[in-house]
């Protein structure tokens, strides 16, 4: 067997360290200046006004924006729900790109800007139920995951779709601690991903997503516990085998792969029968949790021959 | 003069100890308890119960180390404040979190052993609070000392309660465990020394 000799790299070819370290800024600068010459870029806020309401939207009273945006589980920054708000401000969400790989015809890395051009935005008011037994109602803005996935032409081998959050411990300082095995990974079975309810959000409350709520791109699966709805997605991979997901890996008995909202299956350490409504007065009793978070009509069929006590 | 100083200090500590509950009330009336106000009330009251318990337990070791005998006066005060904050913590759970629903309690208890630990911890505090007067201390004599050693068990149970309910980041309960461990360790050495 022959080995090809690797030629030594000439010192003139080596990129200066400072340039290498600032490559993202340089690329961004180059992009911004080029685009700036051609067309004035519309501000992000503009694209989030007058969004039509989607078919899947439920007519519910929404939770106050201040409650939704100041009570987030974003362990990439901190395990404190309030502190995530200011810590997440350090995250740069523009430019942003998403890599698509695995069992799919159209692999590649795509700029979020282009993704937004190809996917018409709509608003969907959904219930959101956290595994910690609290809930809220959020007017998300984004596009259907099914429509998005079709653009990449998954092959017949694609049985699951896996999502990965950005890994950048310098900014996402929570990633310096080992609370979870970073980066955060979540996944759906293909039929779950293709369900019309499954949504990719880039905005909420008529504006772009605040960083702490998962900007610039997050998943929303309203019939599953909130931890399935992964934030700040940088990679989407189509696989044949069931992916290993972050919380499931951390504590298998506490957080299942499916994680469907189910009042009959308790978390090992607390009941899931009821939920605290965020923003409600202190005298409001808990709400009774609904099977599939109230979305049974649309999704129960996905699990018709599965024992949900085993596949929680 | 000395007497006046210690009396004054005691009143000061009494007032300062009311600051946490005043701040909570202030936050409650100005809508600053956040998205989940019951949880905020519940957790902050629990934290303060544990902190006062630690402070109360720290008195004797500090007294031994510094030789300031007057510190003993603060033991009952701090202990009763631990009971005060634990009572509020308990009441928030029963009245606000459960909305007095027995059904809900019955759903939660078998799933959440830390609730049972919390309830046991609180019920153990009650006899200590009831027998905290000088009169009771005299009446019970040696029994009083033995009864009040329960506080060590209470401290351990309180930390177990906290540790058990924590979802994943157990840094804070571990800090309390460390503090209580050191304070208990100090007492153990003292008991040994007496033998």
Polypeptide structure, described:
The complex is a heterodimer of chains A (312) and B (195). Chain A has 312 residues and is an alpha+beta fold. Chain A has one domain (24-303): Oxidoreductase, molybdopterin-binding domain (Sulfite Oxidase, Chain A, domain 2). Chain A has ten helices and twelve strands. With 195 residues, chain B is mainly α. Chain B has one domain (2-194). Chain B is built from ten helices and no strands. Chain B has helices spanning 2-16, 19-29, 37-66, 73-97, 102-111, 113-130, 134-140, 142-148, 150-165, 171-194. In chain B, helix 3 (37-66) runs antiparallel to helix 4 (73-97), helix 4 (73-97) packs across helix 6 (113-130) and helix 6 (113-130) packs antiparallel against helix 9 (150-165). The interface between A and B is medium-sized, with 33 and 25 residues.
Judged by helices, strands and strand pairing, the structural class of chain A is alpha+beta
- Low-confidence runs of at least 5 consecutive residues of chain A: 35-43
Shape of chain A: globular
Q: What is the fourth-level CATH superfamily of chain A?
A: Oxidoreductase, molybdopterin-binding domain
Radius of gyration of chain B: 18 Å
Question: Which helices and strands appear, and what pairs or packs with what?
Answer:
The complex is a heterodimer of chains A (312) and B (195).
Chain A: H1 17-21, H2 23-38, H3 44-47, H4 65-68, H5 83-87, E1 97-102, E2 108-111, H6 112-118, E3 122-129, E4 134-144, H7 145-150, E5 160-165, E6 185-189, H8 190-193, E7 199-204, E8 207-208, E9 218-220, E10 233-239, H9 246-250, E11 274-277, E12 287-288, H10 296-299
Parallel strand pairs in A: 1-10, 4-11
Antiparallel strand pairs in A: 1-2, 3-4, 4-7, 5-6, 5-10, 7-8, 7-9, 11-12
Chain B: H1 2-16, H2 19-29, H3 37-66, H4 73-97, H5 102-111, H6 113-130, H7 134-140, H8 142-148, H9 150-165, H10 171-194
Helix pairs in contact in B: 2-3, 3-4, 3-9, 3-10, 4-6, 5-6, 6-9, 7-8, 9-10
């Amino acid at each position: 067997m022959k080995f090809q000799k690797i030629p030594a790299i000439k010192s003139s070819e080596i990129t200066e360290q400072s340039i290498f370290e600032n490559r993202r800024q340089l690329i961004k600068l180059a992009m911004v200046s080029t685009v700036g010459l051609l067309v004035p870029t519309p501000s992000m806020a503009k694209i989030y006004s007058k969004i039509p309401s989607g078919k899947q939207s439920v007519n519910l009273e929404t939770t106050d924006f201040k409650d939704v945006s100041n009570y987030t589980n974003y362990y990439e920054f901190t395990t404190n729900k309030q502190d995530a708000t200011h810590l997440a401000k350090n995250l740069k969400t523009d430019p942003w790109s998403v890599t698509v790989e695995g069992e799919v015809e159209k692999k590649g890395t795509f700029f979020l800007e282009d993704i937004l051009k190809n996917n018409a935005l709509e608003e969907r008011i959904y219930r959101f139920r956290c595994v910690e037994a609290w809930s809220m109602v959020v007017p998300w803005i984004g596009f259907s995951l099914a429509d998005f996935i079709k653009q990449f032409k998954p092959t017949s081998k694609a049985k699951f779709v896996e999502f990965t959050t950005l890994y950048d411990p310098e900014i996402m300082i929570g990633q310096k601690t080992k609370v979870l095995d970073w980066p955060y990974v979540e996944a759906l079975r293909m039929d779950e991903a293709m369900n019309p309810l499954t949504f990719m959000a880039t905005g909420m409350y008529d504006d772009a997503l605040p960083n702490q709520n998962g900007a610039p791109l997050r998943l929303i699966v309203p019939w599953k516990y909130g931890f399935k709805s992964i934030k700040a997605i940088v990679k989407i991979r189509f696989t044949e085998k069931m992916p290993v997901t972050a919380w499931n890996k951390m504590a298998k008995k506490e957080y299942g792969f499916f994680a469907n909202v189910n009042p009959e299956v308790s978390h090992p350490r607390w009941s899931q029968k009821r939920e605290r409504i965020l923003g409600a007065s202190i005298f409001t009793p808990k709400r009774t949790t609904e099977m599939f978070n109230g979305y049974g009509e649309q999704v129960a069929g996905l699990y018709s021959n599965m024992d949900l006590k085993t596949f929680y | 003069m000395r007497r006046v100083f210690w009396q004054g200090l005691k009143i000061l500590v009494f007032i300062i100890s009311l600051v946490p509950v005043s701040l909570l009330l202030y936050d409650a009336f100005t809508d600053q308890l956040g998205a989940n106000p019951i949880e905020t009330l519940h957790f902050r009251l629990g934290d303060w119960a544990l902190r006062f318990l630690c402070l109360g337990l720290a008195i004797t070791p500090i007294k031994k180390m510094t030789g300031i005998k007057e510190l003993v006066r603060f033991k009952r005060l701090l202990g009763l404040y631990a009971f005060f904050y634990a009572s509020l913590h308990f009441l928030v759970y029963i009245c606000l979190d459960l909305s007095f629903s027995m059904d809900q309690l019955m759903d939660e208890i078998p799933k959440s052993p830390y609730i049972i630990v919390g309830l046991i911890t609180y019920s153990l505090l009650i006899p200590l609070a009831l027998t905290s007067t000088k009169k009771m201390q005299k009446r019970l004599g040696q029994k009083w000392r033995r009864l009040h050693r329960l506080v060590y068990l209470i401290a351990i149970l309180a930390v177990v309660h906290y540790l058990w309910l924590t979802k994943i980041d157990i840094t804070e309960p571990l800090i309390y465990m460390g503090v209580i461990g050191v304070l208990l360790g100090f007492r153990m050495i003292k008991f040994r020394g007496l033998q």
